[in-house]
Description:
mainly alpha; three-stranded antiparallel β-sheet; two-stranded antiparallel ribbon; 19 helices; 11 strands
Amino acid sequence: MKANKIIYTLSVAAVLGLSSCGSDFLGTPTDSRVELDSTDKLRMLLVSSYPQTNYAWPCELMSDNMEDNNSPDDDGLRYNLTSYDRGDDEMFRWEVCVSNTSTDSPSSIWESHYNAIAGANAVLQVLDKWESECKKLDAEQIAVKGEALMIRSYCHFMLAQVFCHPYRGDENNASLLGIPYIKKPETTVKPYYQRGTLKETYDNIRTDLETALPLIDNSIYEIPKYHFNKAAAEAYAARFYLYTREYDKCLEHCNNAFGGADVDPSSFMNTYFQNTSNFYELADHGKFNQGTDKARNFLLIPTYSIALRRFGGRYAVIRDALNSTLHSSSPSWKEYVLTLKGGKGGSFTMHPCFMGCMYFSGKSEYGSFYVGNISEQFEYTNKIAGIGYCHVTRSEFTSEEVLLTRAEAKLFLGDINGAVADLSIWEKSRRDCMGTETLGDYFEDLTIDNIREFYVDSDPGYGIAKTINIDMICPSQWTLGAGEPTAVLQCIQHFRRIEMIHTGMRWFDIKRLGLEFDRKIGKDGKDHLGIFDERKAVQIPAEIVAAGMQQNPRGTDPELQSSSSYVFVGK
């Protein structure tokens, strides 16, 4: 672990021997902040025990949501744009990221999540001590224990999504590398950890998750949505069981997140698209979309990130990436056409809900972005000097993700009509937006027939309908037949891609669904990401490898064709 993490965890080692049961403690400490001797102090420590780094930017770079402005488009046009830093070049090429170890990098993801785990472990160690001496924790302490276990489970789970291969079932996981599962605070200067297997990692994640779930109590929180409240914990459980293909459990926890199987999720859907005329600055979008008063937000995590400032350079949401997401067509809005230049300059298909909430940095042809998922709030440390910190608040668990997760669970459990019904709730919520009052004729309701027609009977283009190889990645007792079920799964992955753009979640879907795609790089470079590509497991940070951690296997990296790596593209 990094030096500053070691310093932090050594400070919390002072909690050893402390108890809430009134046992005497000799001497007066020089700094009472390191004494975790009350429930309030444990709660305060957990406030800072959520990861403060955003995994979105590197994961988006690796996904099919980004393309290279310096590669030729269909008309042979390309630009001479620089990337924000060389680390972006490395992530876009699925290489080992060694050029950026700060904000929005794999190194920062690793450090931030393990720092959060250290805080959770410090709390759990104190609670274990109290429990062994007092025999029983009170209701508030039990709830604190639930939150700490949930944080520890979640942080390890997200580290596994980034630095490991996707879940592939117990048999396959036993031969794949996991990540160190840390259950105690560090007490040595240079600890050594074995990575273990992916099976061991998931077993530990599952144990913490299932132990924590019944302990969560919303009553201890002043602002529940900044903590693992009940809905957030259920949403996390739903995501976990979706990735492990335990669809019966996934469906149960999706329903629990909404408050029951009979609850209509429509009231939980995002109302952001109805309000874009009231936003005058980019920050206004984020303040609304990440509001604690919004039913759609189950868990909000403030992070340090400069992702918004990275747009408008070499890598952007352009061409196929744009046409398959923000400018995408679908079975329900395929007839909506926004005509350019008074009908004389061609047209493109675009869902109208994104009108008024998409922006571009630099020229429009350099790429668009949806500000609702990437809005920055700036924290000034010196307003006169104009310096401070960039924050992007993550809506880490939302009603929309849970709804689309539930649709996938229903589909694999054989309820294809239920899956389409959930997809329809998501789609209809996107119609209720500015400027669509007179556009009713352009929409049609989702049906199994038009889903099949759009995704299977004809190719929608732009890489929207990629071959899904989920059974190759993780064999399951639940499989889909060809035709309509496959078409509905295509629709689910497409809607998830649109909903969670700029969040990094697409990269995890690429891994668990076994998607593959080609990539253009620079003037004439090309590459292909395969189904079982070793590069889908991001390499452990170089400084961690240098400290003795076993790295992910890479074999021989594919050779790029005439790669123009890290240089301007000439005319």
